[in-house]
Amino acid sequence: MEKISIIGAGSWGTALAILLSDKGYEVSLYARRKEQIDEMKNNRTNKNYLGDIKIPNDIIITDEIKEAVESADVAVMAVSSQQVRNVAESIKNYVKKEAVIVNVAKGLEKGTNLRISQVVNSVLSDNPFVVLSGPSHAEEVAMKMPTTVVAASNDISKAEYIQDIFSNEYFRVYTNPDVLGVELGGALKNIIAFGVGIIDGLGYGDNTKAAIMTRGITEITRLGASLGGQISTFAGLSGIGDLIVTCTSSHSRNRRAGILIGKGYSLEETLKEIHMVVEGITATEVAYNLAKEKNVDMPITKEIYRVLYENKDVKESVKSLMGRTKKHETEDIFNIDIKQ
Ligand SMILES: NC(=O)c1ccc[n+]([C@@H]2O[C@H](COP(=O)([O-])OP(=O)(O)OC[C@H]3O[C@@H](n4cnc5c(N)ncnc54)[C@H](O)[C@@H]3O)[C@@H](O)[C@H]2O)c1
Ligand SMILES: O=P(O)(O)OC[C@H](O)CO
Predict the structure, then answer these.
(1) d(CA 340, CA 335)
(2) CATH code for 180-334?
């Protein structure tokens, strides 16, 4: 049986550790904070993240990174996107070269505008890489509710290896060779979920949310395709699938953060209130920069950027979006010239 190391004991890392341990793998879960380690070891819970869900006794809980990764066949990065580089650096001297690195963070690196596969590859260039993404709230996976995700890798045999390791009766894993498309779908849907939250916070209705979701996947696809992603990937689990779950779920931190912004909270107050990773905030900045660089139109992302970073009033942003130049619906993704 493979040995699996999970680095990051937040909601997602803990839920995946439970899933893998239930399948019989030897799992080590690495956390940094002493009081969290003590709670997980003594009570076998991780209350702040997963409430009363029990952590199986077989899971090795450790704050020693060497112990966590040195014999691992698979190392799962379950931290925020901005922490992945730190984690990669911290395991570089201990992890086996053939160990498969599985990234589950859904974001982009601030400052470099890199995708997580690029960040990991810049530090752990010898290790095979797989991204695991899709509509999967940790709270529901921890309650063993049927969930589907996708494993993507440039080496499809590694994606299939991870598919075999993670699949069980309530967690169905598909594969996809389009790493870029899967990564961008996962990162950019957080921006749209944040936007849907703003709409909820403002008190607008279902029509408005459907508009943001539909035009949101359009602009995600437009940027993703311009960077080399497959259009079909954005119609899949890591694209529209994850967009639907994040935009409609009460579990979503991105959507909940948007609700607070829509209600008039400051960004600082919002982050304090959520106290967990809100990837969409950084992703907005990176996507805004990438769209500018590639000359791709992303009106929703642009308005969210203005709200977050230029103090634009949210109602003004809605007005700006509604008042844009009139357009045909399908021309922008598929480049169909409607007048032909
Ligand atoms: N929660 C979900 O439902 C879910 C599902 C799929 C993907 N994700 C993605 O997974 C990533 C992590 O999300 P999460 O929900 O677990 O976040 P979280 O806020 O619940 O937990 C992140 C954990 O990482 C720890 N951490 C931060 N830096 C670290 C480091 N350098 N070394 C070790 N631990 C470190 C933090 O202390 C925290 O416990 C995010 O990118 C998120 O988008 C989350
Ligand atoms: O809680 P969120 O908004 O970070 O979303 C969690 C997952 O990405 C849902 O698939």
Answers:
(1) 12
(2) 1.10.1040.10
Measured in Å, residue 139 CA sits from the centre of ligand 2 at 10
Residue pLDDT tens, the chain, 340 long: 899 999 999 999 999 999 999 999 999 999 999 999 999 999 999 999 999 999 999 999 999 999 999 999 999 999 999 999 999 999 999 999 999 999 999 999 999 999 999 999 999 999 999 999 999 999 999 999 999 999 999 999 999 999 999 999 999 999 999 999 999 999 999 999 999 999 999 999 999 999 999 999 999 999 999 999 999 999 999 999 999 999 999 999 999 999 999 999 999 999 999 988 999 999 999 999 999 999 999 999 999 999 999 999 999 999 999 999 999 987 666 554 444 3
CATH superfamily of 3-177: NAD(P)-binding Rossmann-like Domain (3.40.50.720)
Distances (CA, A) of 109 to 33, 103, 105, 147, 287: 24, 13, 11, 27, 10
Which amino acid type is present at position 25?
Y
Where in the chain do CATH 1.10.1040.10 domains reside?
180-334
Q: Are strands 114-115 and 108-109 parallel, antiparallel or unpaired?
A: antiparallel
Q: Does the pTM exceed 0.90? A: yes
Protein residue with least CA distance to atom 21, ligand 1: 10
User: What ipTM was reported for this prediction?
Assistant: 0.99
Rounded-to-integer distance, Cα 219 and Cα 223, Å: 6
| 312 among known catalytic residues | no
Q: Any idea what the Cα angle at residue 34 is, between residues 39 and 42, rounded to 5°? A: 25
Pocket mutation for ligand 1, best pick of 48, 80, 143, 166 (most atoms within 8 Å of C-beta): 80
